[in-house]
Design goal:
It is built from seven helices and 26 strands. By secondary structure, it is an alpha+beta fold. The chain folds into four domains: 9-23 and 175-318, Molybdenum Cofactor Biosythetic Enzyme, Chain A (3-Layer(aba) Sandwich), CATH 3.40.980; 27-47 and 142-173, Molybdopterin biosynthesis moea protein, domain 2; 53-135, Molybdopterin biosynthesis moea protein, domain 3 (Molybdopterin biosynthesis moeA protein, domain 3, Beta Complex), CATH 2.170.190; 329-396, Beta-clip. A hairpin with a 2-residue loop joins strand 8 and strand 9 (119-122). The chain binds ligand LQZAQKY5 and molybdate ion. It holds the Pfam family MoCF_biosynth.
Length: 398
């Protein structure tokens, strides 16, 4: 088949992302923000530390009083500061994280001191300089410091930083409702008995659910939809409230490829169909009421690659991600890669000693090869054969 009528992948991505509207902004408690994207920039409402603190267990002293001895005037513990002002010749017991008493400017670590009743003596080398072992107010961040930008992914570190900066909730785009279904008379639910060699387990729906689980997405998966137009229409209608509907199979040109006819019967408008990529040519994108419908190819590897390159970017955009598209890494070819035809090629490949090697079985149904791959080597349309050492754009799979 020639490349006529096939959309370049970058154009397909642009058109798909142009359909995406970020979901409304909600404030979520920090504990539920993991995997969302910040809807607004994050600013510290408090500084950290909020006061000068001790970084060690020991004694707060005045540098000028070294080498001691000192009389013990009291204690500053974490959460219970020393109330008074340290006078000449005085020291205060202090714990890690406790506020430095007024008048003190240095911490003497307890390993360098000996205490006898109320008298403290220097036994070790003592502090290396004035201000030793003090965490100054605001040395991590000040009130008002810009901590993160809108569109950044919220990970465990950002959750911790937000808590420390005084936030209990964060503004994020609400979770997306996605309906996923497998279509095809030959399919049987995973784990169920297969009536004949003409049947096979439906692996796409369960794979897509797993791929989407990394994002704040609520998936509704329906039973396998048979190859009957009415059944496809019924399944699509049952998920009219979904933000995104993903089907796999029936996207090609065969007599039983019913996704496009079903979408049209429901009043959906097809935005594009068929992309110059391999695997993954027969992708279809349509608007269907308030939903975006994405018809992925049935071949399992085609479904995986198109989900990586189109579905995940669509969902990230709807969730407000600043970077929605996968970001390739350049690796040197560890072996030759063949010349490419008119479709952008996604080659399942292994990384060996930092170099990328194509795997042998590139059939678009070969899930074992997909599982063995560390990366998809992305080869542009019409690229000449690559030789060992040539830089290859790779999408790491992990
Ligand atoms: N004459 C043409 N034939 C085909 C074309 C074409 O352009 N002209 N395109 C080929 C390409 S490329 C692909 S990719 C496939 C995709 O077609 P469909 O999306 O219509 O998929 P099906 O025909 O329904 O299934 C293809 C293959 O995948 C298996 N399958 C389907 N669903 C699942 C599932 N949920 N889990 C696991 N496996 C599934 C199915 O049994 C078939 O073996 O079309 C080419 N043909
Ligand atoms: O595009 Mo199909 O996915 O080549 O097998």
């Amino acid at each position: 088949m020639s490349g006529a009528g096939l959309l370049p992948l970058s154009e397909a991505q642009q058109r798909l992302l142009a359909l995406a509207r970020p979901t409304p902004v909600v404030e979520l408690p920090l504990g539920r923000c993991l995997g969302h994207y910040l809807a607004r920039p994050l600013t510290a409402v408090r500084g950290q530390p909020a006061a000068d603190l001790s970084a060690m267990d020991g004694y707060a002293i005045r540098w000028v009083d070294l080498p001691g001895p000192w009389s013990l005037a009291g204690e500053s513990a974490a959460g219970r500061p020393f109330e008074g002002m340290l006078q000449p010749g005085q020291a205060a017991r202090i714990s890690t994280g406790a506020i430095l008493p007024a008048g003190a400017d240095t911490i003497l670590v307890q390993e360098d001191a000996e205490r006898d009743e109320q008298t403290l003596r220097l036994t070790g080398e003592g502090p290396p300089g004035r201000g030793a072992h003090i965490r100054c107010a605001g040395h991590d961040f000040m009130p008002g410091t810009a901590l993160a930008s809108a569109g950044e992914m919220i990970d465990a570190r950002l959750i911790a930083l937000s808590a420390m900066a005084g936030h209990g909730t964060l503004p994020v785009h609400r979770r997306i409702r996605v309906a996923i279904f497998d279509t095809g008379d030959e399919l049987v639910e995973p784990g169920m008995a297969l009536p004949s060699p003409a049947h096979l387990p439906a692996s796409n729906g369960i794979m897509l659910g797993a791929m989407l689980a990394q994002l704040p997405v609520d998936t509704a998966s329906s039973a396998i939809v048979p190859d009957r137009l009415e059944a496809v229409i019924e399944a699509l209608s049952a998920h009219a409230d979904a933000d995104v509907v993903i089907t796999t199979g029936g996207a090609s040109v065969g007599d039983h490829d019913l996704i496009q006819p079903a979408l049209k019967r429901l009043g959906g408008s097809v935005d594009f169909w068929r992309i110059a990529m391999r695997p993954g040519r027969p992708v279809m994108v349509a608007r269907l009421g308030k939903s975006i419908a994405v018809g992925l190819p049935g071949n399992p590897v085609s479904a995986f690659v198109t989900a990586q390159m189109l579905v995940l970017p669509l969902l990230r955009t709807m969730l407000g991600a600043a970077v929605a598209l996968p970001q390739p890494t350049l690796l040197p070819a560890g072996a030759p890669f063949p010349a490419v035809g008119h479709r952008q090629d996604f080659v399942r490949a292994r990384i060996i000693g930092g170099a990328i090697h194509p795997l042998d079985n590139q059939d678009s149904g070969a899930l074992h090869t997909l599982r063995r791959a560390d990366a998809l080597a992305i080869r542009p349309p019409h690229a000449a054969a690559a030789t060992t050492g040539d830089p290859i754009a790779c999408l790491l799979l992990s």
